[in-house]
Amino acid sequence: MTEKIYVGNGKKRESQYWDFFTLSLKTSELEKYTNKKWYVSIVVNKRKEEDKFWNDLAVTINDYKPKAKENTKEEISVEDIPFR
């Protein structure tokens, strides 16, 4: 497992009508992880405890890379087909 790359913090807020989250992101860190379409994939996790600024969310880079699928296609001949 790789080291988490923290790029910001957040807080859960409550209003008269609904709950919402506010995030503070460090843009200089985000720029390093933008893809070709200028998107950044992030993960927002709830902290075990609030920090000294009452942030209860942690924002990290989503660095998950799916494993390449192996080419598992089998060659099938006409003789392998049960009906003709």
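^ that was protein a. below is b, sequence first then the tokens
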Amino acid sequence: MDSQTRYAVIGLPAAALVVLLFVLADLERALVRGVIGGATYGFIALGLVLVYKSSGIFNFAQGEFGTVAVFTLWLAHSNGVPYFFAMLLALVAAVAMGLVTERVVVRPLFDAPRVTLLVATAGVALLAIGVEIWFGEPKLRSLDPALPKLGRISILGVQLSDQELLLMAVLVALGVVLALFFNRTNLGLAILGASQEPTATELVGISVKRLSSFTWGMAALLGGLAGILAIPIGKAFGPGALTSGMLIPGFTAAVVGGMTSLPGAFVGGAIVGVAQSLAVSASVFEDVPGSAALMVFVILVAILSVRPQGILGKAA
């Protein structure tokens, strides 16, 4: 039995036990809301894992790919562009930012220490936030959902909107597509090969730099999707919206799930989302300041104490 199968065999009963405990404690609403919130962190974590898996870089600009997409969607739709086409423009803007970041910032520093690239991506995020403040002013705005209907279905007593269902459906579809891409396509296998043996990859005629551009473009697309699907679900946005509100939980989700595991991004996102929801909803945490952040920190330390590489990550 391989490690992935072993963790699935252990994880499924454990997940069922968690659901049962939440129901018995009358916290099933917190569970559902936590999973929905965790889906957004899963999007962010997927982009982070994708870049780290291919190049070993912690990308602090991942949140701003999403914020740029949200601002583009808002600007386009406010000026009369139909919502669907505005969404496409938003994703194009996110991907363009990812490609420019890779070409202008990452590629010249390709052989620099990884910490230098980490600081460089943080600089990209700060620059993007400055531009957003310059053009959009430091104030909060709202964004209409792509699907406006509320209360489409009820799960454990929680009414879910079409936008929330769309968020979950896109995340699941992306998980399947990415799994097939990295396991069944030559391009996906080439990206994995470049992350492990870049010199050998170049020797067989595959450009590592072109693969890097593709990876950053894909990560930016994931960030853009996180923004345009999650922000309309009852959230206001302003400059740096995803960096300030979702990047740290997304990083935590990626680390908990395993920075080398794409399925781990889903698992980590769900764990972080449910932990935050539990801390906000459970009466035992009513008098604890910053309970959501504290709960996530405790779970992070507990999991990494047992598995430093994360739940589904591979040891170095």
